[in-house]
Amino acid sequence: MVPTNYYVILSAILFGLGVFAFIFKRNIITIFMSIELMLNAVNLAFVAFSQALSTARFLCCS
Amino acid sequence: MTAPLVVFFVLAALAVIGAVSLILQKHPIHSALSLIVVMVALAGLYLLLGAEFVAAVQIIVYGGAIMVLFVFVIMLLNAGVEERTSISKLAGAPGLLLVVALAGFVAATIAKSAESVHAAPQTGELASTLGISNMIFKDFVYPFELTSFLILVAVLGATVLAQREKS
Amino acid sequence: MTSFLSTNAELVITVVKIALLLFIVLTVNAYLTWFERKVVAHIQSRWGPHRVGPHGLLQPLADGLKFLFKEDPTPAGADKFVYYLAPLLALALALTSIALIPFGPEPLPWKFYGKAIYLGIVSPDVNIGILALFAITAMGVYGVALAGWSSNSKYPLLGGLRSSAQMISYELALTMSAVGVLLMAGSFNLKQIIEAQAHHPERGLFGWNVWPQILGFFCFFVAAVAETNRVPFDLPEAESELVAGFHTEYASFKFAMFFIAEYTSMITVSCLCSILFFGGWLSPFPASWTFTHYLPSVILIPFGLWVILDGFRYETMFGRIILLGVGTAIAGLGAVFVLLPNVNEFIQAPFWLLSKIFVFLFVYVWMRGTLPRFRYDQLMAFGWKLLLPLSIVNVIVTSFVILARMTWGAK
């Protein structure tokens, strides 16, 4: 199984990329899209934690 | 290198490539298409996590409704044909470094504190459709109804705003 | 080599099934175009294709060759990436939805290195079967919208916008009208939906979902026809209205891809209608009438003999040879089913499913030959003001009935 930390790191990377796009893009539609990207990154973290908690311990081994 | 790990890396790479492409594309429609790729990759990751209902709803709602809305807006408003992505080089590099620092900090904090949390064992049934609907319609029915009311208010507001002024 | 096969048996089976199903679906598409042209022609009192091969049976081959060799211009100023992406997307999504459909409940009698081979790419137990199908349908809007926009031309843009607005509107009615069936079956799983209609096997066809859900069936079928952009809802691609709508600027192979995508979604919708409302692979006869198990042979053998007879009297030599061969194959298949009883038992389920799919495809083609098309505002009003409220009413009534049964319950 995939360790939970991998999902969290991916979520953080996507969130960071969303923040970068939010700050540096000039088109308003693209800025809205980067907000969606940030929301989805957080969503991924939620679902990863939900699976981790339901298996009663965080998966830590590869 | 087990199969789930390989699938995870493929989907994660797809998501990151989509997000980077969102930033680097000049035309907003290409950014929208990249975001659709990210959504689908995330749906695959949800499937990998065992949340099948969330994966299907992610594609239906995000990929099939929200992104369609974005694509329509870009097509109809001819939004920013050839937007200049001359991210000024002076600001771009330190900006990127700061974002990497932010992401790394977030990831490290959560990863460190994650290992010390132990929850009571539950069955893996919460993510199934039955589990989700039990939660929505039994335990959390008031927030659910209030949220739908909120969405209704938003729809009404948008309709009123879009009316032409009665001259 | 054998050790590779035995450790990756599942993967090898899936890859072979994908290749086989792809080939079958593309061939069925090609002959569906032949079928449509023949039936529409006969409705309009003319012959349809009858020169290329016997009864025009090789017409799809000729069309395929034409598509391959036609000139393929790209409009000036078109966004190249999106222009090439749109037909690919439409085709990929349409073909993916066929992968989720189970064609039979039991696996083949032979195991491959210990793994059972099911009929259908994914084994029938996909817990979100129908939800995933709706997800793929929802993504189909992109093929149309992006095709219309990327052609950099007025007619495609208008056609694409209208078509995608139509698809989004009818998608709501489509999913809502299927909810009644889901409530009755209690699962998204297509196999369980069919099994929920088999609770009373002695009722035969009266146990199917179409009787309690007749309103849902009509809403679903109409919404599905609108979703696949077929007559009477094909204004966005009608020739007299918008040149050819969103695929005006597409020629040869890219147009063929849109074409194949449309026919494949027709096939998917027919599969869904038969699975959700008409009992899928269940026989319409009560289970105790075991003599009806010979029905496939009873249909195939006379049909094969008729084709052979036609082959004797056909005009051209080439046609005679082909018809004799095809007729012998069909009659031989029917004979095999009579002679081998366990093959006959196995073939019952796919036979009924395929017959129902064929009936729905015939109804699709029949509508094309008969009905005039909706005007665009009539179309949108119909979808939002009639179909969606009707499907919501269907859901409410179904829920009340199920609740009443549970509270004062009988069975």
Any descriptors?
heterotrimer; B: 167 residues; mainly alpha; Four Helix Bundle (Hemerythrin (Met), subunit A); C: 411 residues; 2 domains
Structure description:
- The complex is a heterotrimer of chains A (62), B (167) and C (411).
- Chain A contains two helices and no strands.
- Chain A is mostly helical.
- Chain A has one domain.
- The longest helix of chain A has 27 residues.
- Chain A is elongated, with a radius of gyration of 14 Å.
- Chain B has 167 residues and is an all-alpha fold.
- Chain B has two domains: 83 residues, Four Helix Bundle (Hemerythrin (Met), subunit A) (Up-down Bundle); 43 residues.
- Helices cover 77% and strands 0% of the residues of chain B.
- Chain B is globular.
- About 4% of the residues of chain B have low confidence.
- With 411 residues, chain C is mainly α.
- Chain C has two domains: 334 residues, no CATH class; 51 residues.
- Chains A and B meet through helix 1 and helix 2 of A and helix 1, helix 2, helix 3 and helix 4 of B.
SSE topology sketch:
The complex is a heterotrimer of chains A (62), B (167) and C (411).
Chain A: H1 4-24, H2 28-54
Chain B: H1 3-24, H2 28-48, H3 52-77, H4 89-114, H5 129-139, H6 141-162
Helix pairs in contact in B: 1-2, 2-3
Chain C: H1 2-7, H2 9-43, H3 59-69, H4 80-98, H5 129-139, H6 141-150, H7 154-185, H8 190-196, H9 214-227, H10 239-242, H11 252-277, H12 295-313, H13 317-339, H14 341-370, H15 376-407
Helix pairs in contact in C: 2-3, 2-11, 2-14, 3-11, 4-5, 4-6, 4-11, 6-7, 7-8, 7-9, 7-15, 9-11, 9-15, 11-14, 12-13, 13-14
